[in-house]
Amino acid sequence: MRIASLGSGSKGNATLVQHRETTILVDNGFSLRRFQQRLQRFEIEPKSIDAVLLTHEHGDHSSGIERLCANFGLPLWTAVGTARAALTPEFDYHRLVAGQPVSIGAIDVLPVTVPHDASEPLQFIFQQADSGKRLGILTDTGHITSHIVEAFGRLDALLLEFNYDAEMLANGPYPDYLKQRVGGNHGHLSNEQSLELLRRIDTSSLNCLIAAHISEKNNTAGIVDRLIRELDNVPAPILANQDTGFDWITI
After folding, report:
1. Does 251 map to a domain?
2. What 3-state DSSP class applies to 20?
3. Residues 26, 209, 226, 115, CA torsion sign
4. What would the pLDDT profile of 190-217 be if each residue is shown by its tens digit?
5. Whole-model pTM above 0.90?
6. 246 domain residue, yes or no
7. Which H helix or E strand runs over 225?
8. What residues have CB less than 8 Å from 4, skipping those under 6 apart?
9. Is 146 helix (H, G, I), strand (E, B) or coil?
10. What is the CATH number of the domain that holds 77?
């Protein structure tokens, strides 16, 4: 199994997960033209994508979804609440339910419910159907729950949100209402909250850690890198960015 990103941050998110002949796209917050431009470097044709998963309706994850799926005939999987919030009423999709796994080609997908200010937000754990290797994607989450700790332990790879530094957010340019939203229980994960998760989960098999959704105004990649490297039993991080995401990483 391998993972790549077309971009990660508040201006647009799209993540590829691939195993054998199966390619899954998680979210698309980019216009159709920009998505196609960014996809070119991965040598994948849009029509070859087997499924698109939508985590929630916020524009940096969903704004390019419907047009992409309609243009290339791609099947979309998402929760009912997200579909109602993000899609036109007549748009056809496959329903995802938290805790109920689905198989898409060579990849098993487990949707996980998370606290976020959206209608029915989900994050995902991907498992190779043949070897059992597991990859988790966890972003757009307001706080760490016991359910998240249980679900995201014993992974081989984890893409984890490190959205903001608490001090930078408090002293930064956002208006108060936005600071409260980002830092609230249904906002995003701070550096410290993500470090807390890494301390609480079983990381004995974790060989790949990707720090993602790093705020360009309320955080820096340097801070995130330093904090993660201070932890024991956690691999040195790969840092996703808004402009290029990151290239294929084999798990």
Report:
1. no
2. coil
3. positive
4. 999 999 999 999 999 999 999 999 999 9
5. yes
6. no
7. helix 221-229
8. 15, 16, 18, 42, 245, 246, 247, 248, 249
9. helix
10. 3.60.15.10
